[in-house]
Amino acid sequence: MIKASEIENLLTLSNEYTVAVKIKSELTERSNERDPFYLTKDELDEILHWKLRRQYRRSKHWQNANTPEIIKTITSAALAIDVPDFDYEVELRISILTCLRGVGVPVASAILALVYPEKYAVIDFRGWRQVFGKNKTLFSIGDYKRYLAQIRPLAKELDWPIQEVDLAIWELDLKKSIEAKQQSQSIEGDNKSELSQLDMKRIVLDQAIKSVKANKCE
Q: pTM of the entire structure?
């Protein structure tokens, strides 16, 4: 399990932190203006950009099917749900949000995390790898509930919104991935250097053998 000390200094290092703060602030303001609250097409698009990053364009053709009216209807229905059983609330909200084209469990979790950062986090392969030590790219609602349950104690210990805990975990995985890649490149470089030295020794040895043979012929 991840320790709070591993992530407590990583949150603001994330390139996504400032953008997330901006989106959360805007959505909080809009939620005070709209009753019931819903997302506009532009707001959903901003969340998709934040969550998908470089993969945003891949899902663009699916997103085009989501009209402003459909987005308003689906998001207002999902965000209006408020039940005492949190697990059931998660199931209902994620199930409704994933009715939108191009929105799977990870993107639905991002919508909830930015609207309700105290209760929800984003599930993706980086967070899962750090929390459970396994590679995984496809997630179910059950996986999401399990992930939230695992990182909730960290949020309580750090006194952070659970969304920020998740973002720091994301940064931790990115940091470890970069370090592992650099170490691999360093080892590869050392191996190449050793091979180069071995090749030089072989060349010198070949030249010495040729020189000896030449002297014998003379």
A: 0.82
